[in-house]
Amino acid sequence: DAGITQSPRHKVTETGTPVTLRCHQTENHRYMYWYRQDPGHGLRLIHYSYGVKDTDKGEVSDGYSVSRSKTEDFLLTLESATSSQTSVYFCAISERPTEQFFGPGTRLTVL
Amino acid sequence: GENVEQHPSTLSVQEGDSAVIKCTYSDSASNYFPWYKQELGKGPQLIIDIRSNVGEKKDQRIAVTLNKTAKHFSLHITETQPEDSAVYFCAASQDSGYSTLTFGKGTMLLVSP
Question: What is the pLDDT of residues A81-107, one digit of tens each?
């Protein structure tokens, strides 16, 4: 998975609790992305980063925030999880805004 | 913004047959078109890509064709094998600045022995 790890790999939480997912890379790539994958919707971009402390919103950013304090780590936070945020979350990295390489994913269930 | 349509949503073939998956895009400024393969329980894996200055690209049993005028591109898999069974995604973007990939909704390919 191109030097990308995601943690945790599985998480079950309750509605209203905060959740943070971590993406860690060892490739020193500039760009990092968070996607969610849901049946019938494919992959949808939540947020992305084009450098340390430089982030921008994607297609489905409501209810999510991100932070990138160092090149290798990109955190996705659900401030108050809802059942609609039950999904599989993928992190991706790229050196250019084209060839993206994906991590193994985190399966999140919000009860 | 960009919109990518992918067809079919499911495709069943016999081992040894060819499989073709088609995508259309809406933004004429898009110039980068990757294809990803996702096996069950794993992240998508980039298998081939094409840029708009090229009409076709091949890598062993897989090939991608691009028709910029019609704004569509296709993935061709020849001599399919059971291990080709997976979900395939197409995507489109501009190769510049802060552009991002827009994905199709995926095609589930099932290759029967």
Answer: 999 999 999 999 998 878 899 999 999
Cβ-Cβ contacts under 8 Å, A97 against chain B = 93-100
Ranges of beta strands (E only) in chain A are 4-7, 10-13, 19-25, 31-38, 42-51, 54-57, 64-70, 73-78, 87-94, 101-102, 106-110
Report the SS3 class of residue B44. coil
Q: Note whether B101 contacts A100, CB cutoff 8 Å.
A: yes
Q: What is the pLDDT of residues A11-23, one digit of tens each?
A: 999 999 999 999 9
- Look at A44 and B89 and tell me if their CB atoms are within 8 Å: no
Taking any CB pair shorter than 8 Å as contact, residues of chain B touching chain A are: 6, 32, 34, 36, 42-46, 49, 89, 93-101, 103-106
- E strand or H helix at B37, and its extent? strand B32-38
Instruction: For residues B71 and B4, give the distance between their C-alpha atoms in angstroms, rounded to a whole number.
Output: 10
Calpha distance A34→A47 (Å, rounded): 6
